[in-house]
Amino acid sequence: MTTLSTLTPSGQALSGPRKPHVQKRDWTGWKFIAPFMVVFTLVLIAPVLYSIYLSFFKEQLVGGNSFVGFANYGQALTDPQFWESMGRVTLFFVVQVPIMLGIALFAALAIDSARLHLSSFFRIAIFLPYAVPAVVATLMWGFMYGTKFGLVGNLNDFFHLAIPDPLGSSWVLASIGNIVTWEFIGYNMILFYAALRVIPTDLYEAASLDGAGAFRIIRSIKMPALRPAIVIGGIFSVIGSFQLFNEPSILQSLAPNTISTYFSPNMYAYNLSFAGQQYNYSATIAIIVGLFTAVIAYIVQNSGSRKEV
Amino acid sequence: MKAPHSTRKALRRTAVVVATGLALSMSLAACSGSGTGSTASSTASAADITAALNEKSTITVWAWAPAVEKIAAAFEKEHPNVTVKVVNAGTGNDQYIKLQNAIKAGSGAPDIAQIEYYALPQFALSKSLADLSAYGFDSYASEYTDSTWGSVKLGDGIYALPQDSGPMAMFYNKAVFDKYGLTVPTTWDEYVATAKKLHEANPNAYITNDTGDAGFTTSMIWQAGGQPYTTTDSTKVSINLQDAGSKKFADTWNTLLSNDLLAATPSWSDEWYKGLGDGTIATLNIGAWMPGNLESGVKEAAGDWRVAPLPTYTAGDKASAENGGGGDAILEQSKNKLVAAGFLQYMNEGAGTQISIDAGGFPSTVADLNSDAFLNATSDYFGGQKINQVLVQSAKDVVPGWSYLPFQVYSNSIFKDTVGQAYAAKSDLNAGLTAWQKATADYGNQQGFTVTSK
């Protein structure tokens, strides 16, 4: 909104009262964005529309294809497996995201504080896991989680501990949360750190002249400046949580009985279409999850920017 | 002043976008709707096949069995006009996904595909595979073992030629048995007793590993005489995973599971290979294709392993089952079925079978199984034991009458959600089997089958 309102006056000034070419359409703008629009239509809009189209049909191994209206949506909304998976990723989002963003925030503030020796080393070291592909990271953690020959097994043997199986059914979600946190702290830290770097240093000088300590500066200058970055990090995390797929999908081969085919909504959709050939129902699930994610992301964005005013 | 104009523009813009999107999706849908365009499937004679092989042609084969490349090379030497492109499109389920997608898309499927026995009904009943009776292949019935021929003969049609087979046997680590003074069990009761004795002697050692595997469970039910799946008229399915055979297996396995006598190590994992090597997994009840995997994957236990017949439920009984193995099928989509038939016959009925055996495959052809060279082959890895004698006997003892579901691939994919949960909780496997049956029946009904769940 703010950007629009600043533009309007100058726009009016340019159009002016004299030139009367009212109806002639100018396609220049369209020509400039045409390459983008073509790609955007092909890779984003068309698949989404196609999925919506698919979700109104039902194709069976016996009986062929038929139009079913909203029947797939009705089925999804009463599907206990779907809601179980949604519940699981919601829990994941509620617990894992605050922990991850909290640690990332702490790391960004610590590195920005200028009291840390080797701050650039820490910056790279914390960021490095983000450069490790999720598949590799999961495999690596999967081996460490092993209770027989993995790190957990070694610790148990060496210290005569009884660490519970990280891939057992009661711990597996936390174990996945740990992997995801490890992967994405660095990314969020960089996001926050970049936001901190653009704060003009004279604000700090002014604050310290006024007698503000480090924590007062964090509370009154840094945190308000960080709010947009935190909102962005939050939105990415919402999307990441609801689209949880790589980590459980790979750990499944190590813990087949604790990670079901409907562990996360994405895994459910994947298995429905690729193991069960239920493309229509799978598309329905995908659309519902997409809408759900958009709503949550909107709420996060809204609550973040409302405080700003 | 400008507002109404721009909204109209925006509206028109959205309309254009929506229209293009719709048009696109329509055309995509048109692609997927066409399905399998079946070509003329009148009977062809051997002469027709020979004639086709003399013309210039190319066929594509999707297979992961390592022998297929070598067989294709040998075939091309004999038929220089034919080019056989062998593509490894993934193993098992990975390949079925791609195959299913190509079938749905109406193009892109190979001429020949390797399909395991358990997955064959799914592709055959959806009319994606050519009936090989059209090429006179039904006359090969007596050349294959009953169990493998039974797996490719679905209804009145022949939908694949068997390649390898996996009659089950008990592979055991003799060094471990000797160390703890165990005798080789011949019944499942003895097996459970041996499991207890071993685990008491060494708490780290287990009689076997099992974290729940659909293929293993169905094979074990097969051996116990269960016939949980029956399909009539290709769409009427009945499922009973609580029939006498299924219960027999589940009850025996419950004893092992509830007493913590099964290693919770997933098969084919690193830990599994380590366990097979260091003696903490003492036996494997598995298909006859296992020797090659032991030799290459568990080198440190060379000389320790032996093969014995699968234990039975009644002393003195002879009963076995197939575990894994598969054949090769011609896709209905293929535009070159005569050439494909020629290659298929060469690969699985002709000279190809020996190449497959040399590459470590366990044959399904009676002549190869009963040849002196095969029966008397000794293996250093197995301490000089003539293991094929045990394995071939197992092929003869396979319990007849088994069939898989026409949607077994999906059913197996949700095994971990149901029976797997019983494994994880070490609770009653019968309850897990019942849950599996229910989920499978639900899927079948949704897919338009008429499923009776007993």
Structure report:
- Chain B: Keywords: Signal.
- Chain B: This is Sugar ABC transporter substrate-binding protein.
- Chain B: It holds the Pfam family SBP_bac_1.
- Chain B: It comes from Cryobacterium glucosi.
- The complex is a heterodimer of chains A (309) and B (454).
- Chain A is flat and about 80 Å long.
- With 309 residues, chain A is mostly helical.
- Helix content of chain A is 73%, strand content 3%.
- The two termini of chain A are 13 Å apart.
- With 454 residues, chain B is an alpha/beta fold.
- Chain B has 2 domains: 166 residues, 3-Layer(aba) Sandwich (D-Maltodextrin-Binding Protein, domain 2); 216 residues, D-Maltodextrin-Binding Protein, domain 2 (3-Layer(aba) Sandwich).
- Chain B is 46% helix and 13% strand.
- Chain B starts with a helix and ends with a strand.
- The N terminus of chain B is likely disordered.
- The interface between A and B is large, with 36 and 43 residues.
Keywords:
heterodimer, A: 309 residues, mainly alpha, MetI-like fold, 2 domains, 2 strands, B: 454 residues, alpha/beta, D-Maltodextrin-Binding Protein, domain 2, 20 helices, 46% helix, globular
Report the C-alpha radius of gyration of chain A, rounded: 25 Å
**Alpha carbon gap, first and last residue of chain B:** 72 Å
DSSP helix fraction of chain A: over 70%
Number of helical segments of chain B? 20
Q: Please identify the oligomeric state.
A: heterodimer
Strand content of chain A: under 5%
Which CATH architecture of the largest domain in chain A would you pick? Orthogonal Bundle
Quantity of strands of chain B, as a count = 15
